[in-house]
Amino acid sequence: MSSLILLLIGLGTLFLVFNTRDEINRITAMISGTILLIWGLALTPLSFQLLIEIVSVLAAFSVCMRCLGCGFNRD
């Protein structure tokens, strides 16, 4: 339960980053939101961690394939 609370606070803090204009508050919110997200993900059950890891690997793979031109030669 504490992991869900930390994840929600971290996401809320990162949402606050986009709504503030002051640079110091933006940097502080970005750092604290990132720390809270990492801490929340570290406390989540293993099945949720694996789900997040699989989704992030698939997202990174699709971006890499798009950057590489899906295997086509760029010449």
Give an overview of the whole structure:
By secondary structure, this protein is an all-alpha fold. The chain contains 3 helices and no strands. Helix 1 packs antiparallel against helix 2. The model has no long low-confidence stretch (mean pLDDT 83).
Would you kindly provide a brief summary of this structure?
The protein is mostly helical and about 80 residues long. It contains three helices and no strands.
As a whole number of angstroms, the C-alpha radius of gyration is 17 Å
Structural class of the secondary elements?
Answer: mainly alpha
Strand proportion: under 5%
Number of strands: 0
Quickly count the helices.
3
* Helical coverage, percent range: over 70%
Q: Label the overall shape.
A: flat
Largest β sheet strand count, sense and barrel closure: none
Note the gap between the termini: 53 Å
Order of helices and strands: HHH
Query: pLDDT under 50 segments (min length 5)?
Result: none
